Amino acid sequence: MSEKSPLVAAMSEEELDARHAEKMRKKKAARDKILATKTQEKGLVIVHTGKGKGKSTAAFGLVFRALGNGMKVGIVQFVKGKWETGERAALERFPGEVTITAMGDGFTWETQDRQRDIAAARQAWERAKAMISDEEHDMVILDELNIVLRYDYLAVEEVVDFLREHKPEMKHVVITGRNAKEELIDFADLVTEMEMVKHPFRSGIKAQRGIEF
Amino acid sequence: MSEKSPLVAAMSEEELDARHAEKMRKKKAARDKILATKTQEKGLVIVHTGKGKGKSTAAFGLVFRALGNGMKVGIVQFVKGKWETGERAALERFPGEVTITAMGDGFTWETQDRQRDIAAARQAWERAKAMISDEEHDMVILDELNIVLRYDYLAVEEVVDFLREHKPEMKHVVITGRNAKEELIDFADLVTEMEMVKHPFRSGIKAQRGIEF
Question: Closest to B191 (Cβ–Cβ): which among A40, A182, A198?
Answer without folding.
Answer: A198
